[in-house]
């Protein structure tokens, strides 16, 4: 019979076998390999989640006035100076920068307008990721439709996505009212279509449209709509071209004066009729699973310096600081027109089609220093006598780039990626 000491020794030998170099080393090596693989997987997962958090914001509310619903209101916040992360691209490196918006090129020395980011009150605005957007647009069309302010936003978008692809892989072509930027590698186009009143008008020529006697076919849109009917993302705007007390509404056609009828209508009434025509066309021709729809709210102007404490007759010229008064609104902003847009969009939603309002109005109201002023070229560069008369020739409507429209596109980007359940993608 074995002694107690022998029994304990036997148990110990079974529990703690002697190291065997023929199999112990492979187990250690395999364990380390598994650790490496798990670490790599965790790293990749973390990067993926971080990227998706940056690209896909959750539960944003966005009615025309920035209210309603739950979640984070991207349109309510403040401007924060940030010269480390902004601007998002360089003016001189944007291949297709517009001279109308290239303020540094035309002599502007104070460049602080480029370094402001929009900070919502309760969340972070996702940083624009040009590569992610181009992947989203692969083999697809994004079309901006509207006036020169929408064209400025389009230029901003072209600069933003163009900054992440080689110049040799991007191109531009113009065909009448349509301008088409193409990212060759992605077979993606980002386009602008000139239609300042959305419906047909005598101002539809992209060059010769500065007519004092404005006439609008408030019931006709098909001529324009055929150019963007099959787009996958549509961004509309129309506002400043309506800003007059009354407007001539044409019922009929420009070609048939005998059968046509002109009626002078109040501006807001004409505006509503045009938007109803636009919304009716969308309802019939756009499938909600195939196209994302957006409407940019009115862009404010800063041509009355007395509204923020300057002398009468002064404007945005020479401004280097923002308006600090919270909730400031200039007289050029018409809340009743914005309400018309909201009503049309709400009615369209009850008919099964959602058009997301991107409310840029209030956040842009503060940015009186963001306009080109005299530092721009439109049809031709300003002459010396014009430059010396900024009260008459300063552009306080459009925006310098890089600048405010880049933030408009960040907001647009956030809502494009919000729609994870959108079958278009």
Automatic annotation (TrEMBL):
The keyword Methyltransferase does not apply. One of its GO terms (cellular component) is Golgi apparatus. Belongs to the PC-esterase family. TBL subfamily. Residues 71-124 form the Trichome birefringence-like N-terminal domain. It is found in: Membrane. It is a single-pass membrane protein. It comes from Cucumis melo var. makuwa. It comes from the Eukaryota. Its main location: membrane. InterPro entries: TBL, TBL_C, TBL_N. This is Protein trichome birefringence-like 34. Keywords: Membrane, Signal-anchor, Transmembrane, Transmembrane helix. Residues 125-414 form the Trichome birefringence-like C-terminal domain.
